[in-house]
């Protein structure tokens, strides 16, 4: 069982005491960590929670996280977001954390429709079951490409995905879904909050997700070279999933209604530095390599950044980063070695 180091304030748990929750995406990375937090708190503080979790494959989730699947507070509902007629509630809180990141091989129109139509169906559940709070787990992708001279992107940024880039389906769909959530909520008396998630680290991280951190960890643990594809100067930041769960539950219970918050780390790290840290922590035997287009000491193009400004959540809700990057990497790597 994963034990999460909680800094969550007591009033968050008091708000959740005796409440009924419906969670989509509960068997993915974000959802698993939310369930870890909720199940742990429910047992520790005797909250009397009831948590219904939508799962495409309840049997697979039971194998993946049996301690969550069989917990008395959790009920798995088999199905997809397009098949929610049997979800009857009533519910007090809904967390919509479903939708996978769109891969290059996915038809962008199909991906866009799946995200937007799925969100619409979950909103219908919220209206039908009397939910009073709705947390939409969005993404920093709604801002589009971060300008090089913008050190960290705030929630007030007017940036958006490039309409000429067919790869922007995920960011466009998340942006439209945020608008739809807020509009629907006004019509049905629901209090919505949007959480714009940035890069994550932690157990349950899918090592086949084709992101730098997951690729580096997988290669290091399998004895393969850590290969940097692209510009090693690219800047990212990573929040540990236990911290992310604390932030999301705080937004669910205390975030300002009809407001959006960045959820992530404001501590930047280059992809090259990340590779070196992972190599050191794993004790990797294989070297760090660069792909043909990344061996780039002479590169002089713009540096891509993906780093949030988190002052709004910090100052407004008292949130913080509780897990340093090296600790987050060490815990993630240790979990995969045990698994």
UniProtKB/TrEMBL annotation:
<feature type="domain" description="NAD-dependent epimerase/dehydratase">
    <location>
        <begin position="22"/>
        <end position="264"/>
    </location>
</feature>
<dbReference type="InterPro" id="IPR036291">
    <property type="entry name" value="NAD(P)-bd_dom_sf"/>
</dbReference>
<keyword id="KW-0812">Transmembrane</keyword>
<dbReference type="Pfam" id="PF01370">
    <property type="entry name" value="Epimerase"/>
</dbReference>
<keyword id="KW-0456">Lyase</keyword>
<dbReference type="GO" id="GO:0005737">
    <property type="term" value="C:cytoplasm"/>
</dbReference>
<keyword id="KW-0472">Membrane</keyword>
<keyword id="KW-0520">NAD</keyword>
<keyword id="KW-0210">Decarboxylase</keyword>
<dbReference type="GO" id="GO:0048040">
    <property type="term" value="F:UDP-glucuronate decarboxylase activity"/>
</dbReference>
<dbReference type="GO" id="GO:0070403">
    <property type="term" value="F:NAD+ binding"/>
</dbReference>
<dbReference type="GO" id="GO:0042732">
    <property type="term" value="P:D-xylose metabolic process"/>
</dbReference>
<dbReference type="InterPro" id="IPR001509">
    <property type="entry name" value="Epimerase_deHydtase"/>
</dbReference>
<keyword id="KW-1133">Transmembrane helix</keyword>
<dbReference type="InterPro" id="IPR044516">
    <property type="entry name" value="UXS-like"/>
</dbReference>
<protein>
    <recommendedName>
        <fullName>NAD-dependent epimerase/dehydratase domain-containing protein</fullName>
    </recommendedName>
</protein>
<feature type="transmembrane region" description="Helical">
    <location>
        <begin position="21"/>
        <end position="41"/>
    </location>
</feature>
